[in-house]
Amino acid sequence: MTTTTSTLSPLPHILLSFFTSLVSLLCSLLVKSISAVRGAVSDCRRRLPLPPGSLGWPYIGETFQLYSNKNPNVFFAQKQKRYGSIFKTHILRCPCVMISSPEAAKFVLVTKAQLFKPTFPASKERMLGRQAIFFQQGDYHSRLRKLVLRAFMPDAIRNHVAHLEFLAIHALCSWEGRMINTYQEMKTYAFNVALLSIFGKDELSYIDELKQCYYTLEKGYNSMPINFPGTQFHKAMKARQRLGQIVADILASRRQRQREGQQSWDDLLGSFMSEKEALTDDQIADNIIGVIFAARDTTASVLTWVVKYLGENPGVLKAVIEEQEGIVKSKGEGEGLNWADTKKMVMTTRVIQETLRVASILSFTFREAVEDVEYEGYLIPKGWKVLPLFRNIHHSPDIFPDPEKFDPSRFEVAPKPNTFMPFGNGIHSCPGNELAKLEMLVLLHHLTTKYRWSTSGSESGIQFGPFALPLNGLPITFSLKT
Ligand code: HEM
């Protein structure tokens, strides 16, 4: 023992004692910081009340109250009236804080966006693809967003007007003399526009199968997430797998053409392929499918509402027709629309804005608090869902007087910041909004200058699937103007 001790050089002793003191110092710091954090959390929790409202029954919360009415907005409006612009509730086993003031929406979506992460049910994430832009935060999200914006910003889409016009004319011709379901037809148009802006005009051989797989995926999207042979969900997951393969095949064929000398493509797939730190094929597929999902039903719902509101407001329709006929007259025989023409469609643009406000097809969005957050003296606990209620803001009489009235002239003056958010706000706001507006303007130009339509009678009301939609997709009879 003595020998061993005496043979030890002093250096290890010094190191050992230095190491021991360092460890004990670190431990004490760690204990202090843990208790400081715990103290802060419990302090925050102890100090602050939850927002007003009710969490309903144990386990089921207020889920029945929300779903007992066909229109969820009735529930939100009643709650807001009773508790004010921030209130708590408990839906589908999730405690939630709902917010309906522009300031609170800005806090959650813009100023403190890092404290609130996007959140979706796991089955939806699996179906769309876990690496899709919607579910991301941080550097990967910024990278994806840059690539998506590159393909859909005005400079990138201004040369697409002729292609969109071709798709619009083709769609409208196919409705001539028929009774159509407006929403279904608008879905087909918006799908074709989305595919064009994702894959360009050259990948036609893949498009039919891609569409079929997407339809199967769509059917399973809102089904029970039971992945067992025979179920809708299972079929949808298989279709999702096949969609991934189709995107991989298109990528392989493009890479081959690249090796043979083709330089680049000015569509979304081209933008994804151009990324220096290459995205994997799976990442590209998840985001392509995600963009189709984000682009199609949203735009189709808004177009369906525009058709409805124009039909119900003859004065507004007349003003739109005059504006669009003015553009026709300013052009040579057979000359198509261009980007500059769409900038002259001021009245039609206001009609689209007012439609986005009144219909508010996305009534709200979801976030989840990543830590305990204090807002206006209330606690938003970590893990709780936070829902900015866009529709309540768009229908606030303090912001938009006589809010139920369809009145495009209110957009002669730009709305105040953070009061008009049909495309969301902040880092997750819609990167496709310019394309959506452009494809709507192009279709409305041809619709209003060449066609007339009438709704099929008594049906009125709203359905949610999941976007707000005129009842039964607005059946109309559609004919050429004589
Ligand atoms: C009128 C039609 C549209 C409406 C009303 C709409 C609305 C929205 C809204 C409100 C968000 C934000 C959701 C949130 O914050 O949680 C969003 C995100 C998104 N939209 Fe749109 N959208 C439309 C059309 C499109 C189109 C045509 C595209 C693509 C071409 C598109 C692609 C996306 C993508 C990729 C996101 C996710 C962005 C991110 O997470 O960073 N949308 N959209």
TrEMBL record:
Family from the record: Belongs to the cytochrome P450 family.
Enzyme superclass (EC): oxidoreductase
Subcellular localization: Membrane
Function as written in the Swiss-Prot or TrEMBL entry: Involved in the oxidative degradation of abscisic acid.
Signal peptide start-end: 1-36
Top-rank taxon, per record: Eukaryota
Cofactor: heme
Residues involved in heme binding: 430
Organism name: Acorus calamus
Pfam family, one: p450
Broad class of where this protein is predominantly found: membrane
Protein name: (+)-abscisic acid 8'-hydroxylase
InterPro entries assigned: Cyt_P450, Cyt_P450_CS, Cyt_P450_E_grp-I, Cyt_P450_sf
GO biological process annotation, one example: abscisic acid metabolic process
GO cellular component: a single term: membrane
This protein's encoding gene: CYP707A5
